[in-house]
Amino acid sequence: MASTATELARRKAREEEGVGSRANAVAFGGQDFQKLRGACLQSGTLFCDPAFPAGWDALGFNQLGRYSPKTTGVEWKRPTELCSDPQFIVGGADRTDICQGALGDCWLLAAIASLTLNPRLLERVVPPGQSFTQQYAGIFHFQFWQFGEWVDVVVDDRLPVRDGKLLFVHSAEGREFWSALLEKAYAKVNSSYEALTGGSSIEGFEDFTGGISESYDLQEAPPFLFQVVRKALKLGSLLGCSIDISSSYETEAVTRQKLVKGHAYSITAAQQVHHLGSPVELLRIRNPWGQVEWTGAWSDGSREWDGVQPGERSSLAHSADDGEFWMSYADFLRHFSRLDICNLTPDALGGEQVARWSYSQFEGVWRVGATAGGCRNYTATFCSNPQFFIRLEDVDDEPHDGEDGCTAVIGLMQRDARRERRFGRDLNTVGFALYQVPDEFQGGGAHLGPDVLLRVGAAARSPFINLREVCVRLKLPPGGYVVVPSTFEPHRKGSFILRVFTEKSAPCRPMEEEVDADVQEPDVKQEDVDPHFKRLFLQIAGNDSEISAFELQQILDKVISQRSDVRTDGFSLHTCRNIISLLDTDGTGTLGLLEFHRLWMKLQRYLDIFKGHDSDASGTMSSHEMRAALAEAGFQVNSAVLQEVVSRYADSSFAIDFDCFVGCLIRLETLIKMFRILDKNQQKKIQLDLQQWLCLCIN
After folding, report:
1. Residue/partner pairs of 221-226 with CB below 8 Å, 24 or more apart
2. 580 and 465 within one domain
3. Active site (annotated) includes residue 263
4. Does residue 19 surpass a pLDDT of 50?
């Protein structure tokens, strides 16, 4: 319950105060940079980060673990111990500040290199005003986008060193340390340096911008891709490319023309030049190693440059020996395998570019037994997955492919993928399906069931993959759609972020009911009570003609034990007290004849509903049937409430027996009744002091 309260408080702060937004980053681990630096300056000490100590755990857990030969002789030193005049940034951050060390994170360095091309984005990740002179206290901070929110990450400046040299990323200049400290902050977010080994530049692009990435297989490149690249660079998008490998033996193998396989490059420019009067499309590509450059056509000093006019040639700065090189677009398609483009959110862009994308983002969870329904192959559980409504209204302007429609880029991201590596946990295989919504559900205020989703085919779907994110660009006719994100198999827990980018404004929201209840109370009068029922009641109730919680427990257990069509572990005393609390209209703490008769009528109705949703006649109900069963009983709940219900009332195999079903319905009705009594102005909000809160919760 405490964890639920914490999550609710976090979401409320995000909605009301913008916590986690680009303008109001969350202090990662609760560490406030200004306060920590101020305390160090006041005490005259240098910061030592207790949350990411300079030791073996920070390096890694396997290949970079305590007993690995790769970490033999490693020391931790501050830049002031490595050179006489360390600098945070010298002459502005640029791509030459990023040289790869002994860590296999070229994917990350390629993303950092692309980031340096956009000063506005770089300043977001590397806040200005940091140095080794003014207000130096051994502490620095950086900001990353992490699963839907921006976080501000502090680190001390103790860096891993061997033989007097930085072990990991470093600058070519030698006394510039912003890139090494940035890498350390990113390692902290992901639990260790080793957690950064291997990956796609897409991940770094997104974590530095909050954008959403597309990936193109260059063997199937669309005819307009060069124009997409040029436009993306003008919009400040980050671009990366790589060459696939067929086995681990090819990792970082260098081809005859000095291209590195299985290595992440960044694309830094796209230009058209005139070679002997004919136009040629060129791309400028950077190797984050800072060396090892392409030696084919249009490489540094190649004869192709002789056919370009001197003025045009000099503007392209083609001869620097810095790991950056030009190659023709045609050669690019032949030699490279994949292109990644990170599209930026509106708040990351300036000027007219702000209107480039319409953007929506949602958090969700797959909870076993409640919302982890698996893909459509699992028809019994598929519809219990979270659902999100999108209304596409206006077609694109000037579509690249010449066909009218609404472009949407939809990304489904799993949380905390790298942090889980330490524990040997694998990613889920995830994907999503998209269905056109029938007219009667266009308002988006209902969770669609099998009668809707299983009777039609999907309008579009993503592949199912076990990567951090699956992202698909779609073009769809105008209309209302529901996105159903899921794991491939049911009963796989996980947290996710669903993001929707559209070229035109597109309202998006969770496909959820508003929490409400319409419970029909049986109206019972004295004359309605059957004489036989009255005689039985008097025999059970005894001399006081009232039934206490203890007596009620005995009665219910005896009655239900005689039925073979429902399973039960027996009614708890807590449930019986809740029943009396709900139905005791005269305040005696017991049930009289009419009150007991109302209960009996409720139980008969609950039994009919329960048996109707016991699809396999096992005597229990699957927790995935709970939403529909509650709706039939008059309770309209959303996924958040449903998850709490299943957590409280389902057993270890996510089955719900009859006594738990009754206990759930009684408790829901009691809570809603109390809320409505306190909500005097019918605003669907109440305010309680601590005493009131405790009394209600203890009840």
Report:
1. 221/333, 221/339, 222/400, 222/401, 224/400, 224/401, 225/339, 226/270, 226/281, 226/329
2. no
3. yes
4. yes
Query: Which strands make up the sheet holding 460-461, listed edge to edge?
Result: 460-461, 430-436, 479-487, 388-392, 508-510
Q: Which residue among 164, 185, 208 closes a domain?
A: 208
**Token pair 């030049």: residue:** 273
Give the number of other CB atoms < 10 A from CB of residue 506: 21
- Tally the domains of the chain: 4
If you write DSSP's letter for every residue of 325-393 in order, what string do you get? Answer: EEEEHHHHHHH--EEEEEEPPGGG--GGGGGG-EEEEEEEEE-TTTT---STT-TTTGGGS--EEEEE-
Whether 6 has a pLDDT exceeding 70, the answer reads no
* pLDDT tens per residue across span 341-360: 888 887 765 555 444 678 89
Query: Distance (Å, rounded) from C-alpha 155 to C-alpha 53?
Result: 9
> Residue 663 region, left (φ>0) first, then alpha (ψ -120 to 50), else beta?
alpha
Residue 35 lies in a domain: yes
The answer to whether residues 200 and 330 belong to one domain is no
Q: In terms of DSSP bridges, do strands 358-366 and 26-27 run parallel, antiparallel, or are they unpaired? A: unpaired
Alpha helices in 67-155 (DSSP H): 79-82, 106-115, 119-125
Tens digits of residue pLDDT in 648-690: 999 988 999 999 999 999 999 989 988 888 888 888 888 888 8
349 inside domain = no
Which residue, 208, 235, 251, sits at the end of a domain? 208
Asked if residue 568 and residue 490 are part of one domain, the reply reads no
Domain identity same for 307 and 416: no
553/691 same-domain check: yes
**Cα–Cα dist 435/480, whole Å:** 9
**Structural domain of residue 190, as residue ranges?**
22-208
Q: Which of 419, 423, 414 is nearest to 493 (CA)?
A: 414
Q: How far is CA 23 from the centre of its chain?
A: 20
For residues 255 and 317, give the distance between their C-alpha atoms in angstroms, rounded to a whole number.
24
Contacts (Cβ under 8 Å, ≥6 apart) of 300: 293, 318, 319, 320, 321, 325
Which pairs from 20-26 meet CB under 8 Å and 24+ separation?
20/148, 20/149, 20/150, 20/151, 21/149, 21/150, 21/347, 22/124, 22/150, 22/210, 22/347, 22/348, 24/150, 25/143, 25/149, 25/150, 25/151, 25/152, 26/149, 26/150, 26/151, 26/152
Residue 106 annotated to the active site: yes
376-424 pLDDT, tens digit each = 999 999 999 999 999 999 888 766 566 788 889 999 999 877 777 776 6
Each residue of 290-334: pLDDT tens digit? 778 899 999 988 999 999 888 888 878 655 557 789 999 999 999
Q: Are residues 83 and 174 in the same domain?
A: yes
Nearest Cα residue to 340 out of 209, 443, 250, 449: 209
Q: Please indicate, yes or no, if residue 245 is contained in any of the structural domains.
A: yes
Q: Of the listed 118, 190, 287, 385, which one is catalytic?
A: 287
Are 43 and 148 in the same domain?
yes
Look at residue 361 and tell me if it is in a domain: no
Which of 263, 597, 613, 624 is an active site residue?
263
Beta-bridge mates of residue 458? none
99 is catalytic: no
DSSP 254: B
